[in-house]
Amino acid sequence: MLARAGLDVVYPEHPELSTVEAAVAALKNVEAVLAGGDLYCDEVLEQLPNLRVIARAGVGFDLVDIPSATRHGVAVTITPNANHQGVAEHALALLLAVARTISQNDREVRSGQWPKPRLIPLRGKTLGLVGLGRIGRSFAVRAQALQMNVIACDPVLTEAASRELGIRLVSFDQLLAEADFVSLHAPMNDSTRGMINRDTLGRMRAGSILINTARGKLVVEEDLAEALRSGHLAGAGLDVMVAEPPPANHPLFSLPNVVITSHTAGADTLAIRDMAIDATQCIIDLYEGRWPAESLVNPEVRDRFTWRR
User: Fewest CB within 10 angstroms: 52, 91, 103, 293, which?
Assistant: First the structure.
């Protein structure tokens, strides 16, 4: 697609661009980047005067300094329609794995045991969605198909819109008090960082389960480990951690009622293909003078954006 549009494609020798030095060295002559989990802080951007577009293959952009990108005339795009169903499927898989003790039971059977655990049903239970964007809505459809009641809190969604989805809109405190399963689908920013902590965990229903496929920094992991050890929470399913990969002695690793995957929720084969295509199309659109409004993170860059061909 890029070649057909007249763009030259180059691949960094070392694709892990997690430091300032690595990012600048790899991108110093680049005008657009098809980005993964790369670092785009102000120190990087000010050393890349040729850069015009950061096209994220995904929906998260917390590693991109958006005000700096805008100041430097760099358009930042995401792929909002590519992987939300894949993440929703993974969130459901984690929920089932914890509620039905899949991983723990598998380990015990392989060790020669034949346990008969008490399983948590999904039908008739309440799922609380913290954030009702594309991923939350996709998860809601799947949960409703399993006869779950779905409630949600979202600062921008209207009650009329939630009623159309068959979802009751509640406050965050109400959600914590009512939900048997709490699933996080919020962005990571200053207002959401550490939103699941000792206080909010204490307000969750006794015996409830936490699912996080959003960002690891939404959760204070030490507080979560304590809530699980004490028995206040029945379990947790996590696809994201504060440090990725986490240290080998992480306190959550020793707990049998935790299922952890390696930030793979949006990485099924269909989602990967669609994210790549959508991010590539954003680059092409901007190169050819079209404005990908639905995918643009910083629309205010438009007044200072130029790409001379």
Answer: 293
Any idea which residues carry the catalytic annotation? 215, 244, 263
The two tokens of residue 293 are 């409004």
Helix (H, G, I), strand (E, B) or coil at 55: strand
β 126-130/181-184 pair status = parallel
- Counting every residue written for the chain, the total comes to 309
Question: What are the DSSP calls for 146-186, one per residue?
Answer: TT-EEEEE-SS--HHHHHHTT-EE--HHHHHHH-SEEEE--
Q: What pairs with residue 222 in β-bridges? A: none
Please tell me the pTM assigned to this model. Answer: 0.87
Task: Please name each of the domains of the chain with its CATH number.
Answer: 20-81+268-304 (3.40.50.720), 84-260 (3.40.50.720)
Please state whether the peptide bond connecting residue 245 to the residue before it is cis, i.e. omega within 30 degrees of 0.
yes
The 8 Å CB, 24+ separation contacts for 24-29 are: 24/48, 27/51
**Strand arrangement, sheet containing 126-130:** 168-169, 149-153, 126-130, 181-184, 208-212, 233-238, 258-260
Report CA Rg, the chain.
21
Phi and psi angles of residue 231, each rounded to the nearest 5 degrees, phi first: 90, 0
